[in-house]
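pinned: reference chain
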Amino acid sequence: MQLLAINGSPRGKKSNSRIILKSITSGAESVENWRTDTIYLNQVSSYEERIASITIADVILLIFPLYTDSMPGIVMKFIEVLQNNRECIAQKKIGFIIQSGFPERHHSVFIQKYFIKLAQKLDCCYIGSAILGGIEGIQNSSKEEFEEYDILFTEIGRMIVSEGKIEEEMFDSIKGPYKFPRWVAFLFKYIMKLKKGQSFWDNQLKTNNAYEQRFERPYE
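pinned: its structure tokens
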């Protein structure tokens, strides 16, 4: 029996999705007679060539980050390939994990609803999905926090293959709020006006040698 884990992050092996999948696949492989395979969509040169991996899989798990309320282009392209090869994925179990850096989960709800319909269109067995907010900090979490993540995702991996389902309630301790109250938005706007509030983004710009160009408007 095989779980096929599909990492739809453009950052591939440097992504938060990889960290999550590493624990999930470890949990799946701890179940007798189960093995896993992982596909990084950012490394795929021909999507059609990966159809063979889908054909031999028993369970398919797609995980990806949400960018500005949209799924990455490589994920959209992969879905198009699946729709054109329905006979290879029909009747297989499929689940989804949608993660994002921003804490609020309401950004991802519409994509979650889309995946429920997509599973039906592909004639797959939908085993569930989960929305995780505030995941960007997982790479900088403390040892204790990381162990908490690892234990949770490992158990989820076991559940996916042994029980054939994803229970969103299992993510309650880390999934973040559905939506912040309005006063939090006002507070956040105030903090972002402060120099310290911009420090994370400034560091990102400096790391990518783009700090001096941060105010440029090339399309005006």
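why pinned: The mean pLDDT is 88. Residues 2-171 form a domain with the Rossmann fold fold (CATH 3.40.50.360).
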